[in-house]
Amino acid sequence: MAQYKLQINGRSYEADVEADTPLLWVLRDNFGLVGTKFGCGIAQCGACTVHVNGVATRACVTPVSSLGTKKITTIEGLSEKGDHPVQQAWAEVDVAQCGYCQAGQIMTAASLLAKNPKPSDKDIDTAMNGNICRCGTYHRIHEAVALASSKMK
Amino acid sequence: MEIQLKTNRRDFLKIAGTVSGGLFLGFQWGESSATPMVVLNPANVAAGNIDFNAYLSISPDNIISIFSPNPELGQNIKTSFPMIVAEELEADWSKVKVLQAPLDTKKFERQLTGGSGAIPHSWERLRKAGATAKYMLVEAAAKRWGVASSLLTASNGMVSHSDGRKLTYGELATEASAIAIPTDVKLKDKKDFKIIGQAIHNVDNQELFTGKPLFGLDFFREGMLFAMIQRPPAFGTKIKSVDLAAAKAMPGIVDVVQFKNNVAVVGKSTWQVSKARKVVKIEYELDTKIESTADHDKLFKDLLDSKESTVRRKDGDVEAAFKSAAKTLVREYQCPFLSHSPLEPMNFFAHVREDGVELVGPTQTPDMARNEVAKLLGITPDKITVDITRLGGGFGRRLKADYVVEAAELSSIIKAPVKVIWTREDDMMGGSYRPAVRYRFEAALDADNKLIGYKLRGVGINSGNATREDNFPSGAVDNLLIDSIEYKSAITTGAWRAPITNFLAFAEQSFIDEVAALAKQDPIQFRLALLDKAKKAPVGAIKYDIDRMRGVIEMAAEKSSWGKKKDVLQGFSVYFSHRSYVAQVAEVKMVSNKPVLQKIHAIADCGIVVNLTGANHQVRGGVVDGLGHALFGNLTFKDGAVEQKNFNSYRLIRMKEVPEIDIHFVSNGIDPTGLGEPALPPTGGAVANALFKATGKRLYNQPFNKQEALQGITIGEKI
Q1: A85 cis-preceded (ω within 30 degrees of 0)
Q2: Which residues of B touch A73 (CB under 8 A)?
Q3: Which of B256, B445, B468, B672 has the smallest CB count inside 10 Å?
Q4: In whole angstroms, what separates CA B124 from the centre of its chain?
């Protein structure tokens, strides 16, 4: 057990947990930030995607001890009012079915657009291919990423 | 260990005590931006509101609260149900607040999600709920103004007089509640629908896209413990001995208990219980029998030749027809088990107290879950409350209450509130799969290439009746025999989206394509001729609507320009399931000598479309689901244990593998007939039929990517 001080969504959080505790469970169980979802636990589905220093990262395989002072952004902190262009696009396109994977999808998309504001269709497919949507909303996810890109100019 | 060192869960009670109009349960962290999950108690929410009926209450400040009773798992019911009420109410949709109702069998009927049946079942009662309230509001306005109600109109949340006076529903609510409830109300003419048929956005969008707690796994309760359960790793085995000492000594662990064939590790955080569970020592022994996929493959062949079967349908004299046939065709098709794999793993919160039981979580069948828990605990169901969270998918897995009962049993043993969490591996290994099934189809053609005999045998593992004996082409063939054999196994199975038809449709529609080819006929014309025959000279009972089936077939031919596209190889499929009809045309193009699936046209007749977005989602999602599992879905067993334990070996379809999907709905004004499942069954057949045209190779088994016929061929992926 050790004390970890994490920088999440521009704020400071502290938790007393074991070093190997994945960020996912610290977010969910210790901080009540449950927007980051548990899907597979082995970085296969992308439901737990957060940004670590701006890079899309699977929180389920990221030990809390590896984070130090790195800046973590979760879906709760992507924008102050829930109006990040990607979130807006997701609402406009009405992407979700069950919605469970969508926070992870949004975080992956936001990270893609931060690096590549004008992605091609193929870029979108490649970037989003790591996120599973069991309901099969892939077409709308693709459409929403493209729409968000157009909003970000 | 105290994991919440820097947090203060005790704030919870203060919060709950100060928030009015709702019971707020969950976190309230001093330093956190977390929002507590809101589990709404309709009685509290509606305090000060005027209740009109189980679905509807209106506040004096003109907020229309509509309760949605059925579990929401992505079928969009939480948006579609209220749309139907709001339509007849003539509500202003922007003033509508939708709330998930908890289980209440006194107020609601059929409060479950399954069988594509919620809208067909509730259509009439939802419309009446809205129309009744509208009637009362109009009468109240007439009374206040002292005029005849015939001079008034209700629209956009207001009652208006022809002279220009207006009152909002909120202003009228109190007086309206005193009006006698009419026994019979007039429903709107369907052509006047303003909300029904629109693409109204999902009411939970903002919460979903900002990470607010909505799902069962997001539910937290002050003092709640976390638990994981070690279940037998192989079907057919049971616990012989356990050594719990090491697990009990792990940090954060509160208790480790054995019940039935389970060992539950209970502790203060998810990660700690998952680590401690790894050091529980359990020895298993044989209980019934353990089986492998290789055993099933052999078993299926034996059963297909068995003399013993359950005859499901028999028309005419099938043996004579086959004897007199000019040509016959025999084909077999097989599918593996599938995992449902909703992305939110199983979980449930239970708190069994002396004075009652509280259950909170994702379930498709809250009533059944409550009854099973009541039975387990030996109490009456009225002592149990069930709050329904949003479900992160279901696909049939959450029709079962095993994981709810388990949580309740554990809570009763440890006498504490507990949330049982399944890992992905638990979910994949823990059972209730789509049953593995094998079919043998036989067809007899006469010298004129007319289908005179048809046989189908379905054999499956814990599959129940693996056939749907009254579906097409039953009724169109003079001599027909359909029978089935079920093999009982320790491997648990259950309803998987479009039960049985999810694979039967592929087999049947692939076979009919081959029969059409044998009869030297176009696949669509061949099916239409069979429908003609069923219409003009029906054989036995016909339980599908011939005209609706014909309707989707003809529209699919038109929308896909069937047979008229150059360099595009098309495959057709049509299927009736759960009251609705869907036809599909898959289009494959050869690119560098490889078949590439480019597009699937899907034509659905589900009657009136309630929510255009939701309906599109169900068709597109059904096609993607059907395609993904036909291509990749494969759950196999070795000595009773599942071989694919997570998404690294159990492959689900991803973005790169979905083709374009073109969707159309038949507009016929029929009351809604359901759409959660019917788009899935036809997909595998349409794709297999198109791939045959492109490659000359027939696919008889799923998943396609494991078939020798397609070795070295990439299917699915976009180019």
Answers
A1: no
A2: none
A3: B445
A4: 22
Q: What is the mean pLDDT of residues B613-625?
A: 98
| Residue A79 CB neighbour total at 10 angstroms | 17
Tell me the C-alpha distance between B346 and B363, whole Å.
Answer: 9
Pick from B202, B421, B647: which is nearest to A96 by CB?
B202
Identify which has the larger pLDDT, A95 or B13.
Answer: A95
| B649 contacts chain A (CB < 8 A) | no
Residue B16 phi/psi, 5-degree rounding, is: -60, -35
Catalogue the E-assigned strands of B145-293: 152-155, 158-161, 166-168, 225-230, 237-243, 253-259, 262-267, 281-286
Question: What single-letter amino acid sits at B185?
Answer: V
Range B302-318 average pLDDT: 98
Q: Kindly report the number of other CB atoms within 10 A of residue B648's CB atom.
A: 13
- B208: which 2 tokens? 């979903």
pLDDT digits (tens, 9 = 90+) for B29-63: 334 556 667 666 666 566 678 889 999 999 999 99
* Nearest Cα residue in chain B from A142: B655
Tokens 């108690």, residue located: B41
pLDDT over threshold 80, residue B255: yes
CA distances from B154 to B145, B162, B183 (A): 15, 11, 19
Here the ipTM equals: 0.98
pLDDT for the residue numbered B48: 76
Q: Specify whether the CB–CB gap between B135 and B149 falls below 8 A.
A: no
Q: Does B3 touch chain A (CB under 8 A)?
A: yes
Q: How many angstroms separate the CA atoms of B361 and B717, rounded?
A: 37
User: Given pLDDT bands bounded at 50, 70 and 90, which one contains residue B9?
Assistant: very low
Is B393 within 8 Å of A135 when comparing Cβ atoms?
yes
As a whole-number percent, the residues of chain B with pLDDT over 70 amount to 92
Distances (CA, A) of B597 to A98, B626, B711: 27, 14, 16
Q: How many angstroms away from the CA of B349 is the closest CA of chain A?
A: 15
Q: In angstroms, what CA-CA distances link B243 with A13, B255, B284?
A: 38, 13, 12
Rounded to 5 degrees, φ, ψ at B85 are: -65, -45
The DSSP output letter for B216 is G
Phi, psi angles (nearest 5°) of residue B155: -165, 140
Q: Do B656 and A137 touch (CB under 8 A)?
A: no
Given B27, B31, B212, which is nearest A35 (Cβ)? B212
The set of residues, in sequence order, having a beta carbon less than 8 Å from that of A141 and lying 6+ positions away, is A95, A105, A109, A128, A131, A133, B655
Phi-psi region of A59 (alpha: psi -120 to 50; beta: other; left: phi over 0): alpha
| Triad B446, B449, B453: Cα angle to 5° | 50
> Average pLDDT of B254-279?
98
pLDDT tens digit sequence for A23-74 = 999 999 999 999 999 999 999 999 999 999 999 999 999 999 999 999 999 9
Residue B337 is classified by DSSP as B
Three-state DSSP at B642 gives strand
Radius of gyration of chain B (CA): 28
Q: Is the minimum CB–CB distance between B278 and chain A shorter than 8 Å?
A: no
